[in-house]
Amino acid sequence: MLTVVGMGPSGLHLMTPAARDAVDRAEALVGGKRHLQQFPTFRGETFALGANVSALLDWIASRQDKHVVILASGDPLFYGIGTRMVAHFGIARVRIIPGISAVQYLCAQAGIDMNEMWLTSSHGRSVNFDELVRHNKVAMVTDGLCGPKDIAAQLVARGKGQRWMVIGENLAMENERIHWLPVSEVSADYEMNAVVILDER
Ligand SMILES: C[S@@+](CC[C@H](N)C(=O)[O-])C[C@H]1O[C@@H](n2cnc3c(N)ncnc32)[C@H](O)[C@@H]1O
């Protein structure tokens, strides 16, 4: 059996009981270093996940008789590993346990409703900024190559510097910080973050 569990943004307290129960029953655990470290007493096999997804698919295929659990950051089907697993194995063979995405958590902390929100990601992909600026409320996960200041530069280039950017840095961690800034003033570097872009504050 293959289960992909959403870990939420950080910390075991933000995982659902169903996700924690699946990990308790796991015979093999897959995840990034940050996620595997959260289960120091796990005694089964582990697979450290990085860019090696093809190797992971082979590893899972050779363990079909085992209960393999993949730890996914946030929600597995929001720009996460769950999408690749469903595409490869089919939903009949993969159980997805949802989690709180970084975007959901940021919205909760900042008091921003998610109604009519356009969701996207710059994490390892290019963003269609012409499409993005057509939406009044946008949320995205990011990466080091295209983070808040790069996104802001794209918006300023399209005459949208007066919009607001809410940057959620290290969400649910000890060093969490949430910044509200006019897009034209976003010029710093931020650690791991998700952002919301609003027409007005
Ligand atoms: C591959 S995407 C995964 C998104 C994830 N599936 C979700 O639902 O949040 C990874 C990106 O999610 C965002 N992210 C995940 N955890 C975060 C956290 N604790 N604080 C801020 N951003 C986070 C960052 O933009 C990070 O680069």
Automatic annotation (TrEMBL):
Pathway: Cofactor biosynthesis; adenosylcobalamin biosynthesis. One of its GO terms (molecular function) is protein methyltransferase activity. Residues 1-184 form the Tetrapyrrole methylase domain. Gene3D superfamilies: Cobalt-precorrin-4 Transmethylase, Domain 1 (3.40.1010.10), Methyltransferase, Cobalt-precorrin-4 Transmethylase, Domain 2 (3.30.950.10). This is Precorrin-6y C5,15-methyltransferase (Decarboxylating), CbiE subunit. Keywords: Cobalamin biosynthesis, Methyltransferase, S-adenosyl-L-methionine, Transferase. The keyword Hydrolase does not apply. One of its GO terms (biological process) is cobalamin biosynthetic process.
